[in-house]
């Protein structure tokens, strides 16, 4: 299988946008790079840039491996990606408003009703609630992969939409800081679009969706607490925006308004950037046993006295069973042709697709529609016959729980591994912010599968990260 390499084409040369960097890299002594790698690890460990791995006997806190070779995207490519991402997220927000209001797309038969009403992430409690600017997903993390097309060019595809509580932006920002610290000369030589303004942009979008008639909205970040796997990011984002990091016990609802307990007394809260799943937000409405939410939050939300980012119920639009319909959403709501294509997807709930998937399992990637983090999936080419047979039985028992996709020849990028520099597969998660307008910082989080031949980039599965450079010219 041929792989599109971001830096080196098949003829062994160097792609033009990498030429200057490749020349610099060739001049670096191995000892220098090795020392820089050790310095990066020491700094990341000192700062506490870790994530938790539940059930990991080796220890719950891990560093996400950081690779020193950047992923570079030329300006023209990014312009196309940016336009496609804005188009997609705009349509997804329109879809969310529609399913919780008039449900026109369901009446038109474009998305089957059972795919929405039978979805575990659909929240009937959200029906008829009007949100500022009709924005449900203020923060979206769209996973992009690249594969070589018939013309030998790298084509971008959308692999997944993350609209509930997308994570990873802290690593995007810290990776850039690290590269600027270790290699300042590279930033003098290259015209690289900045990402450091992301927290300011995020705060602007959150303030833009505050309740009406609030001139100076109070924004907080709501975390499940320090034992959550992404707690570092919760604290980091709050600190970068200059807002309070709170837990459910720090909030209370009175007269359908949300207040934060402070040493100066109660302070009204207008926007909550929540990093807690729907089920645990309000024990009055969802899970009664939740100790990490805030009782009465839904009442205040329904009354329009507080806004949540992202909105309750956004998960219905990022479920893998809805993903195949996004191109049709773009056509339905915007009257436009999708600029970014989905990975071809078969829904195993359909008899023909089920039969095809079962027959071709060794060649396919099969995912649970509610799965995440690289779990609950089968990568056919990397699986044994026994694993494939066992997974086939799971699919037969509940075909509606699975989708099947071809095993894409994901693009590679040179990466430092134990044996030296070698190609490794990667993806990209740009972060799309919606408020009165839709904005994106150039680039995103590049995740890299560090194992040879591995296609799984998730940090919980041993993946690492790279800095992502978007060239300004």
From TrEMBL:
Q: Origin, by domain of life?
A: Bacteria
Q: Which InterPro entries match?
A: ATP-dep_Glu-Cys_Ligase-2, CP_ATPgrasp_2, UCP005522
Signal peptide feature range = none
Q: Which SUPFAM superfamilies match?
A: Glutathione synthetase ATP-binding domain-like
Span of domain Circularly permuted ATP-grasp type: 70-449
Q: Protein name, please?
A: Circularly permuted ATP-grasp type 2 domain-containing protein
């Amino acid at each position: 299988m041929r792989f599109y390499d971001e830096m080196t084409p098949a003829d062994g040369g160097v792609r033009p946008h990498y030429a200057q960097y490749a020349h610099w890299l060739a001049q670096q002594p191995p000892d220098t790079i090795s020392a820089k790698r050790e310095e990066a690890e020491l700094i990341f460990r000192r700062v506490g840039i870790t994530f938790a791995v539940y059930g990991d006997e080796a220890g719950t806190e891990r560093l996400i491996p950081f690779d020193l070779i950047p992923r570079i995207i030329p300006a023209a490519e990014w312009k196309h990606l940016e336009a496609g991402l804005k188009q997609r997220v705009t349509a997804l927000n329109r879809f969310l408003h529609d399913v919780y209001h008039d449900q026109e797309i369901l009446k038109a038969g474009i998305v089957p009703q059972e795919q929405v009403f039978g979805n575990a992430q659909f929240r009937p409690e959200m029906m008829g609630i009007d949100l500022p600017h009709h924005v449900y997903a203020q923060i979206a993390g769209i996973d992009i992969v690249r594969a070589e097309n018939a013309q030998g060019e790298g084509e971008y595809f959308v692999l997944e939409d993350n609209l509930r509580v997308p994570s990873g932006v802290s690593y995007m920002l810290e990776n850039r800081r690290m590269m600027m610290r270790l290699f300042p000369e590279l930033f003098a030589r290259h015209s690289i679009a900045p990402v450091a303004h992301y927290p300011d942009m995020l705060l602007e979008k959150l303030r833009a969706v505050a309740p009406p008639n609030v001139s100076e909205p109070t924004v907080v970040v709501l975390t499940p607490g320090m034992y959550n796997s992404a707690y570092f990011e919760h604290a980091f984002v709050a600190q970068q925006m200059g807002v309070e990091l709170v837990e459910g016990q720090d909030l209370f609802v009175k007269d359908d308004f949300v207040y934060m307990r402070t040493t100066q007394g109660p302070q009204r809260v207008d926007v909550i950037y929540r990093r807690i799943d729907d089920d645990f937000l309000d024990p009055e409405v969802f899970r009664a046993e939740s100790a990490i939410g805030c009782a009465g939050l839904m009442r205040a939300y329904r009354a329009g006295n507080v806004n949540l980012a992202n909105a309750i119920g956004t998960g219905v639009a990022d479920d893998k069973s809805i993903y195949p319909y996004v191109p049709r959403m773009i056509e339905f709501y915007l009257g436009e042709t999708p600029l970014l294509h989905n990975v071809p997807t078969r829904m195993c709930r359909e008899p023909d697709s089920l039969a095809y998937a079962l027959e071709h399992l060794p060649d396919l990637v099969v995912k649970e529609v509610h799965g995440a983090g690289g779990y609950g999936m089968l990568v056919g080419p990397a699986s044994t016959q026994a694993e494939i047979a066992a997974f086939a039985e799971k699919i037969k028992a509940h075909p509606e729980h699975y989708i099947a996709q071809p095993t894409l020849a994901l693009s590679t990028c040179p990466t430092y591994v134990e044996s030296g520099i070698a190609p490794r597969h990667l993806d990209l998660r740009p972060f799309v912010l919606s408020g009165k307008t839709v904005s994106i910082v150039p680039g995103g989080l590049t995740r890299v599968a560090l194992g040879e031949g591995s296609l799984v980039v998730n940090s919980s599965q041993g993946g690492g990260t790279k800095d992502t450079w978007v060239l300004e010219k």
